[in-house]
Each structure stands twice: as C-alpha cells, then as structure tokens.
Amino acid sequence: MKFNYGKIFLLGFGFFGVSVIWGTYNAFVPLFLANKFHLDPAWIGFFMTLDNIAALLIQPPIGAWSDRLRTPIGRRMPFILVGAPIGALAFGLIPLAAILPLFVACTSTLLLSMALWRTPVVALMPDITPSPFRSQANGIINFMGGIGSIISFLLGSRLYEINPAYPFWLGSALVLLASILVFSFIREPQDFTARSEKQPGLFESLKSVVQDDDKSALRVLMAILFWFISYSAIEAFFTLYAQNYLGYPENSGAGARLLGQLSLLFVIFALPAGMIGARLGRKRTIMSGVSIMFLAMFSMFFIPAETLNIVLAAKVPVLGDIPVIGPILMVAGVAWALININSLPMVVDMTEESRIGTYTGLYYLFSTMAAILGPNINGWVIKLSGENYRYIMVVGPIFMAFALLMMLGVRRGEARTGSLKG
Fold first, then answer.
1. Which run of H or E residues covers position 265?
2. Given 1.20.1250.20, 3.40.50.2300, 3.40.50.1110, 1.10.150.910, which CATH number is that of 202-409?
3. Which residues of 77-87 are buried (b: 16+ CB within 10 A; e: fewer)?
4. Are 138 and 274 in contact, with CB atoms under 8 Å apart?
5. How far is residue 297's CA from residue 238's CA, in Å, rounded to a whole number?
C-alpha cells in the first residue's frame, strides 16, 4: 500500500459533502423551526440534538458491519452508494415541507441516511493509507471538511437571502457530486477478503478495550470523550456568551463571526497539524494541543469582558472586526487542529486492519456521547450560576484537564512503520 495525496483529496470530497450538509442543517433548520413552525426554544434545542442521538445509536454498529461486509465493490462503498443519495434527496425536500410532520419525516430520513454512510466514508481513509501517513491524511480529510463548512456558511447565507431552499439544494447537489467522485476514483483494498475468521462486533470490541491489560485504547477513548465534552459545551453556548457576557447586540451575529475565526484557523492548520503529528508523534502533539486549549479557555474566564472586547483590528476581510478575544480563539483553533487531526489515526492504529471500521465506530461512539453531554452539562452550570455565561469557560478547561490526564498513560497509537509497503 502506497500513500497517494491525490486519492486522499478525492476521498476528502466525501467528508466535504458531510460537512456541507451539517453546516447548512445547523445554520438554517433552527430558523425553519422558529419562524415557519413556531416551535418553543426548548423543543428546538431538543430537535437539534437528534442528529447526535441518531449518530450515537447508528454509526458505531454501522462501522462494525462495514468491517464484516464483503461485496464486489468493497465493504464501505455500499453504505456510501445507499446513504448519500437518500440523504441528498431528503435534504433537498426539507425547505419544501409545508407541515411539521412532513418536515420531521424529511429531517429524520436525513439523519438516518447520514448516520448510515459517515463512518464507512471516514473508515476509508485508514483503509487506503499506510499507518505512517494517517495523521497527514486525516489533516487533508478535515481540511476538505472545513472547506465544506465554510461554503455552507458563507455561500449558504447568501443563497438563503435569495431563496431559503437554495442552500439545501446546493448541499444536495454537492453530496451527490462528492459520492460520485469517491465511487469513481477510490478503489478499496481487496486483501481483507482473505480473512475468513469472524470479527468481533462493536460491543465485543468495546469490552475487549475495557478488559485489556494495556489501557491505552480506553484512555484515548476517554480523552476523546472529555475533550469533545469541553469543546461542544462551549460551542453550544458561545453565541449566548457573546451576547450575555461580552455584551454584543442580540442580532449582531458577532458570536458566530468569532467562532468563524476559530474555524478558519482550524482549517488553515489542518494539514500542518497532521505533519506535526507525524514528525513529533501523535501523543505529544495531542497533549500540546490539549494544554494550549486549556490555557486559551481559562484565559477567557479570567480576562475581563471589557478587555476581551477591545478591538485590535477592524474589518479584516472574511474575519470582520478582531477584538482581543479573536487571537485567543485563533490559538484555540490551532490547538483544536493539533488534537482533532491526530486522534482518529491514533485510535485506528491500536487495532488490526480488519477492524478499522469498528474502531472508527468506537471513536464516533465516544465523540457523539460527548456532543450530547457537553451542552447539557454547561446548560446546568449556567442555570445554577444564575445565568452567568462567564462560567462556560470553567467547564471547558476542567474537561480538557481530564483529557490531559487520560493521555498521560497512553502507550500505543503511534504510526506503525511496518505498515509502509511498496
């Protein structure tokens, strides 16, 4: 197996399609729920967690199933060829739904179909990439995903002003295009067909991880749970933090722009983060990112709001105004790249090639649990603090510290040099 940058960029279109869908969904579905169907904010919040609940229940077993599946076109491709077209169709129908039950039917179909093919398309990366290059490859995949998110936000917002259906139709078209490109140009390795022994499923694999004398895999999975709780807890409430603590006007969109500064630096640093992980080691790179993220979050708690709001640069193209909090968020974006780009390669390099899909499913099991737990934990913290949104910057660092403690005991997961074959 040889490393091919061109193939990884083509595979990145799959993750690009996923990111376009979720960026558009998260940006505009709440507007439909509030303005078109007049749902209460509490119900909107619950509705917007359904994607994570669906992912939690479906993605891990799908990953294990894809490990065991044997077809002439591979073990991952059937999920992509079924899930992507159904998802694209359901996504395109969402803005056309005139009544709430039909809207729920469209969004539910989308959630199920996306959960069907996300894990297999991500598992394709380690399938076609030698172990020493998986951090770089994951950087490329996340770079493509970041481009998809930027398109969904920037271009999608302009299209929404013309016609609310246009961003959804754009997303549907791009997902279909992405799946066609992946199917046309990516060939799955066929050497797994020689393995006739029965492979353990998701929960058997989780049990073996827990019972393993070497707790490295369990520690990494727990670290993933903790740092995603930290990140999702802050992300879910950041726009309200900007409004209620930093004092930005309710309809200014300043919180979203500030998050955009973090996201842009994450995208820019996605490729270098993979290269750093390959050179310095994944564990060392991840721990550096966790430490930097810890400091960035805590600094936003201790620095007064008046200081965080001081404008350093005004009207920078794409980024808008850059106050003091802007560079802190940019540093956090770089740190998040160091963490996120190297974590999946570390997980899949703790198992044999035949179980990559299962371990990809474990990765998503823990990260999705975190995406459900994080916002709920911070919601209670905000409520118990008398709605003092400053305290969202306490929850994040605490869980980053837990993640750092977990990573200290990791002994495996670095690139396997023996995987590089001609």
1. helix 254-280
2. 1.20.1250.20
3. bbbbeebbbbb
4. yes
5. 12
pLDDT digits (tens, 9 = 90+) for 258-311: 877 887 888 899 889 988 998 999 999 999 999 999 999 999 999 999 999 888
Number of helices (H), then strands (E), belonging to the chain: the values are 16, 2
Q: Which fold has domain 1-184?
A: Growth Hormone; Chain: A; (1.20.1250)
Reported as a single tens digit per residue, the pLDDT across 125-183 is 788 888 778 778 878 888 888 888 777 766 777 788 788 899 899 999 999 998 898 88
Q: Is-contact 321 311, C-beta < 8 A? A: yes
Q: What is the DSSP letter of 198?
A: P
DSSP states of 33-84: IIIIS---HHHHHHHTTHHHHHHHHHHHHHHHHHHH---TT-SSHHHHHHHH
Q: Nearest-CA neighbor of 328 among 401, 391, 259?
A: 259
- The DSSP secondary structure of 84-142, one letter per residue, reads HHHHHHHHHHGGG--SHHHHHHHHHHHHHHHHHHHHHHHHHHHHHS-GGGHHHHHHHHH
Domain spans, the chain: 1-184, 202-409
How many Å apart are CA 157 and CA 360, to the nearest integer?
32
Half-sphere exposure at residue 75, Cβ-oriented, CA atoms within 13 angstroms: 27
What is the spatial distance between Cα 372 and Cα 91, in angstroms, rounded to a whole number? 23
- Residues 325-364 have pLDDT tens digits of 989 999 999 999 999 989 988 988 887 766 776 787 788 7
Question: What is the spatial distance between Cα 63 and Cα 66, in angstroms, rounded to a whole number?
Answer: 5
The rounded distance, in Å, linking the Cα atoms of 331 and 265 is: 8
Q: What distance in Å separates the CA atoms of residue 289 and residue 283, rounded to the nearest whole number?
A: 10
Residue 211 corresponds to which tokens in the numbers above?
A: 């019972």
pTM for this structure? 0.74
Residue 220 has pLDDT above 90, yes or no: yes
Q: Is 248 helix (H, G, I), strand (E, B) or coil?
A: coil
